[in-house]
Amino acid sequence: MDTLINRTVEEFLRATYGEGLVGTITDELATTEENDPVPGRVHGMRMLDRAAFRLVKPTVEMLEDLGAWMTRIEAIRRLLRFSGRDFTDFLLRLEEMPGRAHLVLPNLHLPAIQVEAVGHSIFLTMSPPDAAWRHLLIGIVRGMADDYGALCLISTEGALIRVDVWDTSFAQARDFSLDVASSEVVR
Cα separation of 132 and 44, whole Å? Predict the structure, then answer.
């Protein structure tokens, strides 16, 4: 599982910032981790921290960008889109995400997500609280809002994520069909 997380971080950095940055960070980490033969998942966070330092960006912003980037990977996007017919439904069903992730990746342990809807606001909390997962989830919510064509404001209040949904059809949503064959372009 650690290898999958590390590879995801590396691919995100490569796709977003280029091979040069990944090579530089990999070289730096090779010299600092030579006494750590099994870097584990900490390696991925070290890569993000190094990239954030080099790009003069907060690490939490890098985590949010990683979450949004993951929603553009078609297999992940399809799993997420299957969670709701519209953006609000998607948000309300986020409590199911750790269980669904566990079906696909049994060794991935996501914190539980509690969802509470109050008016046009949806509040998300993770138990136990985890800042890295929280910011990754913010990025996923941001990416899925774009995918659904929704207009929302995402903010954090301590460990709480607040999503104010203003318009669920603000922009054209990306095409989505449960049938993979019908969603492919015929040439």
Answer: 12
For the chain, percent of residues with pLDDT exceeding 70: 88
Which token pair is 143?
């990416």
Tell me which amino acid residue 43 is.
H
Report the C-alpha gap between 108 and 101 in whole angstroms. Answer: 7
Q: Give strand pairing partners of 161.
A: 124, 156
Token code pair at residue 99: 């269980």
Can you list the positions of beta strands (E) in the chain?
112-118, 121-127, 151-157, 160-167
CA distances from 43 to 37, 47, 158, 173 (A): 11, 6, 26, 36
Which two tokens mark 72? 């553009």
Say how far residue 94 (Cα) sits from the centre of its chain.
Answer: 13
Name the nearest CA neighbour of 83 among 178, 179, 181.
Answer: 178
163, 87 Cβ separation under 8 angstroms: no
pTM of the model: 0.86
Long-range contacts of 100-104 (CB under 8 A, 24+ apart): 104/79
Measured CA to CA, the distance from residue 96 to residue 116 in angstroms comes to 13
Q: Which two tokens stand for residue 172?
A: 């054209």
Cα(32)–Cα(53) distance, integer angstroms: 16
Residues 101-131: pLDDT tens digits?
888 888 888 899 999 999 889 999 999 989 9
